[in-house]
TrEMBL record:
SUPFAM superfamilies: Chorismate lyase-like, Winged helix' DNA-binding domain. CDD domains: WHTH_GntR. GO terms for molecular function: DNA binding; DNA-binding transcription factor activity. This is Unannotated protein.
Length: 238
């Protein structure tokens, strides 16, 4: 683990972020270093460390075994973004993720897609629809749109990989940021069937637009995620 210099006025917040990241990247039930080792590694007092541990336990990241120490919890919910594919997140947690490709084709952009991507209506875009599973449980289903002129031959790539990674590795289009819109919706029937949910079940709709350093929108991903499997956490810094 690398040493970190944590500023005095933000030790608690920075420590929370660092420990949460550490736990997410470890398999469930992996033992963490001792409190003494962690406090030395992050340069904080034992009191500051214990405050952070209490918060992470309440959020379900870690748990304590008396006389043994701290361990990574079995994930109750998935915390992720469309920059990193859901399959990669689940694989990091020791799960057995799978994907199902429903379709991959080239279509003319409608008004909504064209506006999101900053192109003209009717221009060619690639459309990719797939669902993500943890074992046999459907976790999310999504439709991705990419301007065809930005990624020729995209449909020949391994579409189970992160779309951001494909664009960065094969088309030199690294994503600088992703703009999100999230809302609770009742999706149309085909998406409910893919998620294996009833019509009234909670569903989160994500609109994610990937933007490069040149301020070019290179993908739009519209995804539906099961509301009983996801936890949204926001942090506002002022």
């Amino acid at each position: 683990m690398p040493n970190r210099n944590i500023a005095k006025d933000s030790k608690h917040a920075t420590l929370l972020e660092a420990l949460a990241e550490l736990s997410v990247n470890l398999k469930p039930h992996t033992q963490l270093p001792s409190e003494r080792a962690l406090s030395e590694e992050y340069g904080v007092s034992r009191m500051t460390l214990r405050r952070a541990i209490d918060v992470l336990q309440s959020r379900g990241y870690i748990y304590t075994v008396p006389s043994k120490g701290l361990f990574v919890s079995e994930p109750r919910m998935v915390r992720t973004s469309d920059v990193t594919s859901l399959s990669e997140v689940l694989r990091h947690r020791g799960n057995n993720p799978t994907t199902k490709l429903h379709l991959a084709d080239r279509i003319h952009a409608n008004d909504e897609v064209a506006k999101a991507l900053g192109i003209r209506k009717g221009e060619w875009v690639y459309r990719i629809e797939q669902s993500f599973f943890d074992a046999d449980i459907a976790m999310a289903t999504e439709t991705a749109y990419v301007p065809a002129d930005l990624a020729p031959g995209l449909l020949e790539q391994d579409l189970a990989k992160s779309l951001s990674a494909i664009l960065s590795d094969h088309y030199e289009k690294p994503i600088r940021r992703v703009q999100y819109r999230v809302r609770s919706v009742i999706p149309e029937e085909k998406f409910r069937e893919r998620l294996q949910i009833s019509p009234g079940a909670p569903t989160l709709e994500f609109h994610a637009v990937g933007i490069t350093s040149k301020e070019r929108s290179v993908f739009l991903v519209v995804s539906y995620k099961r509301g009983d499997k996801y936890d949204l956490i926001y942090q506002l810094e002022v």
